[in-house]
Design a protein that fits this description.
heterodimer; A: 475 residues; alpha/beta; eight-stranded mixed sheet; two-stranded antiparallel sheet; 13 helices; B: 744 residues; mainly alpha; two-stranded antiparallel ribbon; 49% helix
């Protein structure tokens, strides 16, 4: 009762503050709630690492005997193969994580164990393997550009910024830090349009939180208003000289600029909400280390979700050229490590990879912790947030894509019957095996947009099991 | 950030005023008179089958409304118009209205559309309606024009805009970039702003403080590298100690030692690569000076800065007027937001001026007595440059622009020939580019769709070519024909040679199984030795008796197939429209087209099950053309037997087909297979004219009208007289009135 009252009260206040142009998704949610409907948007964070995610490395320590064989270690130069490999499995396994001792790299996820899923056994051979699969990981369309799952979700759960891309590197193979808009080549809106990512944390900060920032950033956001005016002015000047369909063309152009101006006002009207999510600027936003970059990007991601500016974030954690320097080893370039070069200070390649993975998962945990603190409905924002951690290639540095593991935190507001489990599907070649397309289909299904197939099919996997979602995971 | 550009739906435009003289000529009836005329016509000719009692084909006309604005009624009227124009209705075996009655109703319907603000030319402005203008009339020589295009702004294509362009193109079959097709929507502008901002930041460069930070990370990188080199030297020395005789190891160690020496020798203050050492260079940059100076910039500095950005954005020398306006804008922005932010938004706004997003073809040149205005020389320079390339006008064109020679069609022709020679024939020293020429053929034939049709590999064991390789095979074949530049269309439709990708050292990197040849054959029977191009890794073979032109290339056949089968309907439709110039209406929405999947029947037998007379009206024209291609399977391999859906039984292939109701008596008749069909079509003058019409559409960026008749006839003549030269055809089109003149 009291919650209901508070909501109505809040709704009233926000509506008054907003004036007539209401773009705030928050207001929409609240009014729906006031009318008795649950209408929280589903939020998604896709955290995409490079160099593969080795299945053996995310099996809980005390489950290892059941699922893992220790093999002789990797052969340097031959593409990296870890010493820990999965036993061939022909059964569907679902085992509670309650008593699981998580791998060292996953320790920071311990507090979220009841929300955690380790998803194993899916394959992705419709997609090019090797160093990278490009858009394929999220589109399942071989090496072609095609709409990726994060963009599909962004369409289903739109907000002021429908898709927020954050990347530390300009390209998968690259070493360069991205310092402005970049196209890391993992997300696309269609077969002709790659999605842009923010490379520079400061730029991303400015564009998202500039409206409520102070100093130079605030000034830049204000200047945006003038920019739209200028753009409109120039289009109008040309429009006066035209007739007929050309004039209509510019009318569309003008409408688009006006819509942007309105969006900007919408952002201004959301300032209370944005203030709540806005992270504090610090050195890490400008520091030139991969560790600081990722940390800053993750802060921005959490802030953008909390403020309702976006519901879908994709984070590109690193590239094959990225050099880690703060994780207890030096000289650790992802590509080199992948090829079996043990960086100084690390005990082995597996150890170094573990440290990198651990660092990335620490940041995932930070996002989760922030969202868990923000109340929403009877619980917290984290209840309606799903974080998917995976690699843009499958199982290892030179991936075969025969295995493609995922670490999932969250259950799409209860739509997925996942959390708290170690889930393993039968390996390729066994009955009941599925591809990663089935996993993306599961998300679409749970989001209320069921479809039959996703991307291309793997000709060596039973066609029927490539149809529809993973039924075992749907609530 | 969804980025979608949308096609303007012209039907919704209610305030459009078109004063084309062809329309003015039709005085037209008032709405009430038209209504009684139409009702009378329908009663006499149509409503017996399409009325209250019978609704053949689910179509009724007794209840059609006189509403030419609503989308629903407009759709019905357009269907009626098409039936009247093509003479499809009333059916041949029924009483026919007189020619005058038919013509009267046709012009009446067009007039009503015009009065409603939806002129028929606009309703049919999409590429797929190109054939709706009567072919015989177009080439009759009776229509004297004059020819012109409307003044227009043409959104820059994604090819011109370059990598990561937010602009999109149509995914539908056919030409993708008509001038009127695209506008810019919100997500696109958002992306454009992001791109422009990044560009502005790059142009301005880092501040001194930012350079200091970069210095630190640069230094750190060198030290890390040093550490790594030291370790490498150590490990290589150890290896060498174990194998002191190994020359390879010795050399490797020497290299690493040298690298280390160079690294150690780095002078952290003076090194050229130290970011701060770029400072003196940056200080020469007017943007940098303005952005980071403590004082307000002078008028000269402002003018210099805006002139430079304007030049980049407009791809030309800006007018004084533009410079003044932007300089004032810069001053105002700086007053309001300070130097850096003020400069940033002004520069961003300039990069996003409509002129940098659209190509302008307004007709700013001299005016003729008949009201047409020529493009100005500058407009011609850009229209010409972008007609053939994505890079715009080259140095030679700009030279002629400065020399004021560009308004002469002969000069324009010479430029087209020069660009074609350097890019395609390769006779000149400097090799140019003409990306848009090959793209015409890609969009016309549509073979690039091969990558979009998913094929289940289990049906074709051991056959795994990449569709992208097949497409490239066809690209190279077309370029080969364009290079010869003789009887281009005939060659395109009937050549028996094929480019075949084969990389002996890398198994699987080949398309040879698509062409039914063996590895040994491609090596021994390679015919054009000079063209065994190492970079393209392709062999060239004569496949006489199996292939005849682009339509028999595996890429085209795959692009025009379904997941499991050949698609005779799409293939037939393509031939009927693109070679015979016919009109096939859109699939009626009432039709649920399904081909039965009987496992024991051939595709032809399965098709014949759908022998409904209503369907046959269109399918009798398409299917016989498509069936001629049954000599290939759905991945484009030549075959004698067809494997049925049961994946076991094979039956002999029947590739007989024919040309039906082409409108050209000498073409109609049966054919044995695709080879005969293509050879017949490749020498037809009618087919040649249809091809010229398509080239016109691509290079004008619009559909033709009867006024364009002189331009089309001249282009056709140029092609014939030059012995079938594509170069001559393009040169004729680009120096034509339709290309050079504008009129509202």
């Amino acid at each position: 009762m009291s919650i209901e009252m508070t909501r109505r009260h809040l709704l009233k206040q926000i509506s008054l503050g907003c004036g007539t142009v209401v773009l705030s998704p928050l207001v929409g949610q609240l009014s729906a709630q006031a009318a008795g409907k649950r209408a929280f948007p589903q939020r998604f964070v896709f955290v995409v690492k490079s160099s593969g995610l080795t299945p053996g490395h995310i099996v809980p320590d005390n489950f290892m005997d059941d699922y893992i064989v220790q093999k002789k270690s990797y052969i340097a130069g031959e593409g990296y193969t870890s010493g820990v490999q999965m036993k061939d499995n022909d059964k569907f396994i679902k085992r509670s994580l309650k008593d699981a001792v998580l791998n060292d790299s996953m320790k920071s996820l311990e507090p979220f164990k009841d929300r955690l899923t380790i998803l194993q056994g899916l394959s992705g051979n419709m997609v090019t393997g090797g160093h990278m699969s490009g858009y394929g990981a999220m589109s399942c369309m071989k090496d072609l550009m095609a709409e990726t799952i994060d963009h599909k979700m962004a369409r289903l759960f739109p907000s002021v910024f429908s898709h927020l891309g954050l990347s530390t590197v300009t390209a998968t193979m690259g070493a360069r830090f991205a310092n402005s808009v970049c196209y890391p080549g993992i997300s696309a809106a269609s077969n002709t349009k790659a999605l842009p990512f923010h490379g520079s944390p400061t730029q991303a900060y400015r564009s998202l939180f500039g409206s409520v920032a102070s100093g130079k950033n605030r000034k830049q956001f204000e200047a945006q208003g003038n920019l739209f005016d200028y753009l409109g002015e120039d289009v109008k000047a040309l429009r006066r000289t035209l007739k007929g369909s050309e004039k209509v063309k510019l009318d569309h152009h003008l409408e688009a600029i006006e819509a942007l101006q309105k969006q900007r006002q919408g952002i201004l009207s959301m300032s209370e909400q944005i203030k709540r999510g806005k992270p504090e600027l610090s050195d890490k936003y400008t520091n030139m280390t991969i560790e600081d970059r990722l940390d800053a990007h993750c802060e921005i991601a959490a802030g953008a979700l909390i403020s309702g500016l976006t519901n879908v974030v994709t984070i590109r954690t690193d590239g094959l050229g990225s050099q880690y320097t703060k994780l207890g080893f030096v000289n650790g370039q992802v590509h080199g490590i992948g090829h079996g070069k043990v960086p100084e200070g690390a005990q082995s390649v597996d150890h170094a990879r573990g440290l990198i993975r651990g660092f990335q998962l620490d940041n995932v945990a930070k996002i989760a912790a922030k969202l868990a603190k923000i109340p929403e409905g009877d619980g917290s924002m984290l209840d309606n947030t799903t974080i998917v951690y995976f690699s843009d290639v499958g199982d290892k540095h030179h991936a075969s894509n025969r295995e493609w593991p995922f670490i999932v935190l969250g259950n799409m507001g209860g739509k997925l019957k996942l959390p708290g489990h170690y889930v393993q599907y039968p390996h390729k070649g066994n009955r009941g095996h599925h591809t990663i397309a089935s996993w993306w289909l599961t998300l679409l299904h749970a989001a209320g947009k069921p479809q039959d197939g996703f991307g291309m099919k793997d000709n060596n996997v039973d066609a029927e099991s490539q149809r529809g979602p993973l039924k075992e995971l749907l609530a | 950030m969804i980025a979608k550009t949308k096609i303007i739906f012209l039907v919704t435009m209610s305030f459009f005023v078109l004063s084309s003289h062809t329309l003015i000529a039709e005085k037209g009836l008032s709405a009430s008179k038209f209504k009684s005329q139409a009702k009378q016509f329908f009663k006499e000719n149509c409503t017996t089958c399409h009325g209250a009692k019978r609704q053949k084909g689910n179509t009724t006309l007794h209840d059609i409304e006189m509403d030419f604005k609503s989308a629903e009624e407009s759709r019905r009227w357009l269907a009626v118009l098409l039936q009247l124009e093509t003479g499809e209705m009333p059916p041949k075996d029924r009483d026919q209205p007189s020619h005058e009655e038919r013509a009267q109703l046709i012009s009446g319907i067009k007039n009503q559309f015009r009065l409603a603000g939806n002129p028929i030319e606009l309703l049919r402005s999409a590429p797929k309606y190109g054939n709706y203008v009567d072919h015989k009339e177009l080439f009759s020589g009776e229509h004297k024009g004059p020819s012109y295009s409307r003044p227009r702004i043409w959104r820059i294509s994604p090819y011109i805009d370059g990598q990561s362009s937010p602009f999109s193109l149509s995914q539908a079959e056919g030409f993708k970039d008509y001038a009127h097709m695209w506008s810019v929507d919100k997500p696109t502008i958002e992306l454009l702003i992001l791109k422009a901002k990044a560009e502005v930041e790059r142009l301005i460069g880092p501040s001194e403080a930012e350079l200091k930070i970069q210095d630190q990370s640069w230094k750190k990188q060198i030290l890390t590298k040093r550490r790594s080199l030291q370790l490498e030297v150590k490990s290589q020395e150890e290896q060498l100690a174990k194998n002191p005789e190994n020359e390879g190891l010795k050399k490797k160690l020497e290299r690493t030692q040298k690298n280390l020496e160079r690294n150690v020798a780095t002078d952290f203050e003076k090194d050229r690569k130290r970011p701060s050492n770029k400072l003196h260079q940056l200080k020469r940059n007017v943007y940098w000076r303005i952005a980071y100076a403590p004082e307000v910039p002078t008028v000269e500095e402002r003018d210099e800065a805006v002139t430079r950005v304007l030049k980049a954005a407009l791809r030309r020398n800006p007018e004084t007027e533009d410079i003044t306006r932007m300089s004032v804008r810069l001053e105002k922005s700086i007053t309001e937001y300070g130097n850096q932010t003020g400069l940033q938004i002004t520069m961003t706004s300039i990069l996003l001026m409509p002129e940098s997003i659209y190509r302008m073809e307004m007709g700013l040149g001299k005016k003729l007595p008949d009201g047409r205005r020529m493009l100005s020389s500058a407009e011609i320079a850009y229209a010409l440059g972008y007609a053939l390339t994505d890079a715009g006008p080259d140095r030679e064109i700009m030279k002629d622009l400065a020399g004021e020679k560009l308004s002469d069609p002969k000069v324009i022709k010479a430029h087209v020939e020069r660009i074609y020679d350097s890019a395609i024939i390769g006779t000149t020293k400097r090799r140019g580019k003409a990306e848009r020429v090959l793209r015409f053929f890609q969009e016309y034939f549509g073979y690039q769709g091969a990558t979009d049709v998913f094929k289940d590999g289990t049906r074709h064991v051991g056959h795994k070519p990449r569709p992208s390789d097949l497409i490239r095979d066809t690209d190279l074949l077309i370029l080969h024909i364009l290079k010869e530049d003789k009887d281009v269309l005939k060659q395109l439709l009937s050549t028996d040679i094929a480019y075949i990708r084969h990389v002996p050292a890398r198994p699987g990197w080949e398309t040879i199984s698509s062409y039914n040849v063996t590895q040994k054959e491609v090596r021994t029977k390679n015919i054009i030795s000079g063209e065994k191009n190492r970079n393209n890794q392709r062999y060239v073979m004569k496949l006489t008796g199996q292939r005849a032109g682009i339509l028999t290339q595996p890429s085209w056949l795959t692009a025009h197939s379904t997941n499991f089968d050949n698609d005779p309907v799409r293939r037939g439709k393509w031939v009927y429209e693109h070679l015979l110039g016919g009109v096939i209406p859109d699939l009626p929405i009432t039709v649920d087209a399904v081909v039965p999947a009987d496992p024991d029947k051939s595709l032809r037998e399965r098709f014949n099950k759908t022998g409904d007379t209503y369907c046959q009206k269109c399918h009798s024209k398409m299917n016989p053309l498509g069936f001629a291609f049954e000599m290939y399977d759905d991945v484009g391999r030549f075959r004698k037997n067809e494997l049925l859906r049961d994946n076991k039984t094979e039956v002999e292939v029947d590739s007989s087909g024919g040309i039906v109701q082409s409108g050209v008596a000498e073409l109609d008749g049966p054919v044995d297979d695709a080879l005969e069909l293509m050879n017949k079509l490749s020498v037809s003058s009618h087919v040649r004219q249809v091809f010229v019409r398509h080239a016109f559409r691509y290079w004008m960026g619009r559909n033709e009208t009867l006024d364009d008749s002189p331009t089309l006839i001249a282009a056709d003549k140029a092609y014939v007289e030059s012995g079938g030269s594509m170069k001559a055809l393009i040169a004729s089109l680009i120096s034509s009135d339709a290309f050079l003149y504008r009129k509202d």
